Amino acid sequence: MHGLISYSVFRLIENIRHNIYFEARNLKFIRYVLWAYAGAIILQFFGALVNDIWNLNMNGLLSDQSSGGRWMIWIVVYVIYVMFKRGIALQDDANKIV
């Protein structure tokens, strides 16, 4: 999952460096980050649950970041996704007018 997040962020930054902002491929990369990060949050939650139930030492696998902090990051990425989605719609409208 971290590989998918890294790849998507790399491609998104590469597109922005080439002045490609509000296009569907950027939205696709942000969507990949959203799904992969949500999956990582869920896996960390179940890892913590297993750790609590069976008293396994999984400290190396789980981050010290609180669950609320992880969800706040996910919400910020979701807001960026919505902004890009709206930007693409506005870009399409502008292209139809011209």
Word description of this protein:
This protein has 98 residues and is mainly α. Helix content is 80%, strand content 0%. The longest helix has 31 residues, at 24-54. The model has no long low-confidence stretch (mean pLDDT 85).
Relevant terms:
98 residues, mainly alpha
Strands, helices and their partners?
Layout: H1 2-17, H2 24-54, H3 67-97
Helix pairs in contact: 1-2, 2-3
* Share in β-strands: under 5%
Q: What summary fits the major beta sheet?
A: none
Order of helices and strands: HHH
Structural class: mainly alpha
Q: How much is the average pLDDT?
A: 85
Number of strands: 0
**Shape descriptor:** elongated
Output the number of helix runs.
3
Task: Name the poorly predicted regions.
Answer: none
So what's the oligomer here?
A: single chain
Rg on CA atoms, Å: 17 Å
What is the percent of helical residues? Answer: over 70%
Terminal residue distance? 41 Å
Structure at a glance:
The protein is mostly helical and 98 residues long. Helices cover 80% and strands 0% of the residues. It has three helices and no strands.
